[in-house]
Specification:
It contains 7 helices and 7 strands; from the N terminus they run E-H-E-H-H-E-E-E-E-H-H-H-E-H. It is an alpha/beta fold. It is globular, with a radius of gyration of 17 Å.
Length: about 210
């Protein structure tokens, strides 16, 4: 099973691209790093003092998401999957049964997807690139409607998240072959689809 990494700063279109790929390659298994946020009392308290906490690796259940990925690689029939309620700041897990098929992708999406110490050389590495102003507009719209935040709070959080993301992405880009995609650029999206379809055809001919 080939893994697709979809990374990018907040508001860059990662979830949008993930959904488009999942619809196109409908056997895909999707893991979103946002679903693995920690909900312990300590994390909740710290989040009131550090409004960039959820843009730092400490905020996610790192070993749980690694366990989920490894169980998928081992083709375990039943695994734990997580979901996170952003308004309640509550994480819950459920036992899920998976069906494994040929020509299947594991899509790993989120701001932490490139920081999980995976074998990225064997992954299809995608970084969503959009103008900062575009990402901010998307982030404001999402956080006000879905996460109950006001625009000033969103702006402060966004600027910090933007800084932290680009602070941590350089080594990943330097050490791996990366496909840059803009969800507003039809050509870059079509080139990505061509690359994925070419990969599948190669697998069929082996």
């Amino acid at each position: 099973m080939k893994t697709i990494i979809i990374s990018g700063p907040s508001g860059s279109g990662k979830s949008y691209l993930t959904n488009k790929l999942a619809n196109l390659f409908n056997n895909s298994i999707i893991i979103q790093t946002d679903s693995y946020y920690r909900d312990s009392r300590i994390i909740k308290i710290l989040s009131y003092f550090f409004n960039d906490l959820y843009d730092r690796l400490i905020s996610i259940k790192y070993y749980e998401i690694k366990r989920t990925i490894n169980n998928i690689y081992k083709k375990e029939n039943t695994i734990n999957l997580y979901n996170y309620d952003f308004k309640r700041k509550y994480s819950y897990k459920k036992r899920s049964k998976l069906k494994y098929k040929n020509k299947q992708f594991l899509i790993l999406e989120g701001i932490f997807s490139h920081r999980l110490d995976l074998n990225y050389e064997n992954c299809i590495n995608i970084v969503c690139n959009e103008r900062k102003e575009t990402c901010l507009k998307r982030r404001i719209n999402r956080d006000i409607h879905d996460r109950g935040r006001n625009s000033n709070e969103v702006l402060e959080r966004f600027n910090k998240s933007w800084y932290l993301y680009y602070k941590n992405i350089n080594n990943y880009i330097k050490n791996n072959k990366v496909i840059n995609v803009s969800t507003q650029d039809k050509n870059s999206y079509e080139q990505l689809i061509f690359s994925l379809e070419h990969y599948i055809k190669k697998k069929e001919n082996i």
